[in-house]
């Protein structure tokens, strides 16, 4: 067997082994990773849905809490009146306006009060008679006096041919023994909007602690349905959350559930998601198919490469033998293709040793220089990293978030909101790289900055931002517009005791240019000062420490978009100042870092 054949077979086997091992490992790893990622996303989706369900139910419970804590309302409803006109006058003067405001929600279809006062013969009021005392909600309250409110599964109103959810509340805050109740009927499709944007192939179920089903995304008729009627009920664990595989006549599913806790009225409510297992494996199977195709292509390509390499290597060996035979007549010099066989192996080793020593010498020299330069580079990187860690934005964000949490715990919502805006502002400023951003992001940064300044100046600061959405995709240097607004705060608002208005407007100057104006009604400036600022915009280097911000913005606009763009200033003493920023339209704007068009 020739050297060429042996070399070809050995290398081909090694390549096939490596490719096979790598393909198998990556296929298994990718499949498991994708499956796990989909499961994690699904768990997060269920947790988010559970949170939304909790918040939605809480919003209507807060209405009931308002009625429960309104002692004035309860006092009027529990009072004894000598005549119906006296009760009627009290009702329309005090009770009816309050109830009208509560009934204003579109989702509240009915609000009914149950009382023992015989004079309350008004719309929405019913006496507590034998029929009421035999109802489920009344029996539940009487059997558990500590119970404040109860959610009931959807019921069907045969008179109006529609369904409704019912929330009942006992109004005994003023008098613990009072026989006064209120029921709120809500639209039975109340929870449908919560899953409007979810995957239509996923099935979502929401069930009360009693098992009554509030929502089933694949069942329109849920009246009277109970969670115990579903085949997977027995596989739901006692834990607050979990996942399990279930199978029925329609196929296999991954069941993920989350149990609400916290308030006693919703504790035990379950939010369930059923995800078809075939959907979980679709992407994983596609990865396996692609991996097999790539493996086949790699095998074919490897055979071709190994063949041509082996052919080239043996050819060079024959050329080396010819070159070594002529070494005495042509002087000693490097041969391009070093070859050898058994008869000239000694001369080949000497020649290879010579080339190897020369190569090592060259590499030692180059490696020494490379190591020296690399050491210098790493030293600079370490210094930069040390500086960076001093202003680590994550540390800053976490610290501000902790401060905000402490303020909220102490009831200082105003300062907590200011800290929240400050953290969001830092996240925008420090969280992204690049010289230019979209105008929409810059406007959001400006809005947060002005909201923060409102905490400082109060009613002295008024602002209005009106920028058409057509301009939101335009490129603008980072913090350019924010600097102009900050300039207006410093030079207009801080020097003016009267309320100051800052207006931000945008319009098309021509087909390729938009103009963004930042205008204030502050004290303005003299003509001489305005002329000095205009001259300083185009200076190659700043002549002083004043107006460096305006000059930097003007120079950045010129550098990023060209000479036609930049800043224009207009001001009149006592009549305010307007600074205009000229930018290319969205179709012409170019990202200064990446060189691509934003559009």
UniProtKB/TrEMBL annotation:
GO molecular function (one): ATP binding
Topology with respect to the bilayer: Multi-pass membrane protein
InterPro entries: Bact_2-comp_sensor_kinase, HAMP_dom, HATPase_C_sf, HATPase_dom, His_kinase_dom, Sig_transdc_His_kin_internal
Membrane-spanning residues: 7-29, 290-309
Subcellular locations according to the entry: Cell membrane
PROSITE patterns cross-referenced by the UniProt entry: HAMP (PS50885), HIS_KIN (PS50109)
Gene Ontology CC annotation, any one: plasma membrane
Every Histidine kinase domain range: 391-587
Catalytic activity: ATP + protein L-histidine = ADP + protein N-phospho-L-histidine
Ranges for domain HAMP: 311-363
Enzyme class: transferase
Matching Gene3D superfamilies: 6.10.340.10, Histidine kinase-like ATPase, C-terminal domain
Protein's UniProt keywords contain DNA damage: no
The keyword Nucleotide-binding appears for this protein: yes
EC id: 2.7.13.3
Superkingdom, natural source: Bacteria
The entry's keywords: ATP-binding, Cell membrane, Kinase, Membrane, Nucleotide-binding, Phosphoprotein, Transferase, Transmembrane, Transmembrane helix, Two-component regulatory system
Name this protein carries in UniProt: histidine kinase
Native source species: Cohnella zeiphila
Lineage: Bacteria, Bacillati, Bacillota, Bacilli, Bacillales
């Amino acid at each position: 067997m020739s050297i060429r054949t042996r070399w070809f077979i050995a290398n081909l086997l090694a390549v096939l082994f490596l490719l096979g091992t790598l393909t198998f490992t990556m296929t298994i790893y990718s499949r498991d990773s994708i499956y796990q990622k989909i499961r994690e996303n699904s768990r997060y989706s269920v947790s988010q849905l559970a949170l939304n369900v909790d918040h939605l139910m809480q919003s209507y419970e807060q209405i009931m809490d308002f009625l429960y804590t309104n002692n004035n309302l309860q006092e009027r409803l529990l009072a004894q009146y000598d005549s119906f006109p006296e009760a009627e006058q009290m009702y329309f003067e005090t009770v009816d306006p309050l109830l009208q405001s509560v009934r204003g929600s579109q989702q509240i279809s009915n609000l009914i009060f149950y009382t023992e006062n015989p004079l309350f013969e008004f719309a929405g009021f019913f006496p507590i008679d034998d029929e009421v005392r035999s109802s489920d909600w009344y029996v539940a309250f009487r059997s558990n006096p500590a119970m404040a409110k109860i959610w009931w599964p959807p019921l069907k109103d045969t008179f109006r041919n529609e369904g409704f959810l019912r929330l009942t509340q006992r109004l005994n805050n003023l008098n613990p023994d009072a026989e006064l109740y209120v029921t709120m009927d809500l639209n039975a499709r109340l929870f449908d909007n919560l899953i409007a944007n979810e995957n239509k192939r996923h099935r979502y179920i929401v069930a009360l602690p009693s098992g009554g089903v509030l929502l089933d995304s694949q069942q329109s008729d849920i009246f009277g349905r109970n969670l115990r009627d579903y085949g997977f009920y027995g596989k739901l664990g006692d834990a607050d959350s979990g996942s399990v595989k279930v199978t029925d006549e329609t196929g296999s599913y991954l069941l993920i559930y989350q149990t609400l806790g916290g308030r006693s009225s919703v504790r035990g409510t379950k939010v369930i998601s059923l995800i078809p297992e075939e959907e979980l494996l679709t992407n994983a199977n596609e990865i396996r198919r692609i991996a097999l195709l790539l493996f086949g292509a790699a095998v074919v390509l490897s055979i071709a490469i190994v063949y041509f390499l082996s052919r080239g290597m043996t050819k060079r060996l024959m050329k080396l033998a010819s070159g070594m035979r002529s070494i005495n007549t042509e002087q000693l010099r490097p041969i391009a293709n070093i070859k050898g066989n058994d008869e000239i192996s000694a001369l080949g080793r000497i020649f290879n040793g010579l080339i190897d020593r020369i190569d090592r010498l060259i590499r030692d020299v180059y490696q020494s220089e490379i190591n020296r330069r690399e050491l210098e580079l790493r030293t600079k990187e370490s210094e930069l990293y040390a500086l960076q860690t001093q202003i680590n934005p994550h540390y800053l964000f976490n610290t501000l978030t902790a401060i905000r949490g402490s303020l909220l715990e102490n009831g200082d919502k105003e300062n907590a909101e200011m800290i929240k805006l400050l953290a969001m502002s830092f996240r925008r400023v420090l969280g992204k790289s690049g010289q230019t951003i979209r105008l929409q992001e810059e406007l959001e940064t400006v809005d947060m900055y002005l909201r923060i300044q409102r905490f400082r100046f109060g009613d002295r600061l008024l602002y209005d931002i009106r920028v058409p959405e057509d301009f939101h995709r335009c490129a603008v240097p980072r913090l350019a517009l924010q600097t102009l607004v900050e300039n207006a705060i410093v030079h207009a608002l801080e020097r003016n005791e009267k309320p100051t208005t800052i207006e931000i407007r945008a319009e098309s100057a021509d087909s390729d240019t938009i103009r963004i104006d930042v205008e204030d009604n502050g004290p303005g400036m003299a003509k001489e000062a305005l002329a000095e600022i205009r001259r300083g915009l185009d200076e190659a280097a700043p002549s002083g420490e004043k107006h460096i911000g305006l000059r930097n913005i003007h120079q950045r606009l010129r550098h990023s978009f060209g000479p036609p763009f930049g800043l224009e200033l207009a001001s009149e003493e006592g009549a305010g100042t307007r600074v205009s920023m000229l930018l290319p339209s969205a179709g012409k704007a170019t990202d200064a870092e990446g060189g691509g068009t934003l559009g």
